[in-house]
Amino acid sequence: MNKQRVVILGSNSFVISNFLKEIEKDYNVIKINRKKINFLKSNTKIKVKKIIKKNDIIVFAAAIAPVKNFDMLNKNLDICINIYESLKDLKIRYFINIGSDAVYKDSLKRINENSETTPSNLHGFMHLMREKILSQLSCKKCFIRSTLVYGDEDPHNSYGPNSFLRLAQKKNDLNLFGKGEELRDHIFVNDIGKILKLILKKKIIGIVNLVSGKEKSFYTIAKKICKTYKVGLNFNKRNGPMPHRGIRIFSNKKVKKIMNSFNFTEVIEWIDGRGIMK
User: Fold this and answer.
1) Which class would CATH give 5-149+188-210?
2) What is the 3-class SS of the chain, one letter each residue?
3) Which of 84, 159, 160, 231 has a Cα at 20 to 30 A from 247?
4) In terms of CATH architecture, what is 152-184+214-273?
């Protein structure tokens, strides 16, 4: 019996890196990255149509992120439009879009899948616009909204667990903005792999927030790393207001319902069990 084909558009994405490992035994995974198809070019439609077959499952993760300016915004929307135009007339079995929790309005309460989507930055606006474009596809669809992701081989090295650990492993002191008091949800890339695998298997429809529901302050994370690697911790004065009003916390009820019994990896556990990060 032939395995179900799963076409990955944007296969170099860090967010889905473990997901690809999780599904490669059970599915026929076709990986498409920028080297194979430049999704920004006008010939994207022709190239994608040559690859996609009837009843394929599509996972769309291609993006230039994080979005920091209007040029990046426009490029990301162009990528999405090209993919939409490539797929709109094809008979696709199932479609998963990899997005971001940045689409949500800042809130002091726990955010869930029904919370207001009023992005506070270009990155969130990009993801929201892409969702609206792709929602016009006629197949079954799942829109993933992931919170901050940590784990090996993260290419972004943004403020948080990944960059803190890399610095400490090189015996550099850590620097926090303000007192590091902002509360954030973080999710382990390997947990994402397991969750997406089950979402794919169950063909979940609608919006799913990939969140742990277990927030930690940047200070708590940095303090643990400093203690583990015996490096210093500095506090720097902020230039401007605290992002997200200092809090970005989520309800994980929907993802826990999908997963049944599932223990999310704690950031602190990951720090304790880490070797040398690349």
Assistant:
1) alpha beta
2) CCCCEEEEECCCCCCCHHHHHHHCCCCEEEEECCCCCCCCCCCHHHHHHHHCCCCCEEEECCCCCCCCCHHHHHHHHHHHHHHHHHHCCCCCCEEEEEEEHHHCCCCCCCECCCCCCCCCCHHHHHHHHHHHHHCCCCCEEEEEEECEEECCCCCCCCCCHHHHHHHHHCCCCEEEECCCCCEEEEEEHHHHHHHHHHHHHHCCCEEEEECCCCEEEHHHHHHHHHHHHCCCEEEECCCCCCHHHHEECECCHHHHHHHCCCCCCCHHHHHHHCCCCC
3) 231
4) Alpha-Beta Complex (3.90)
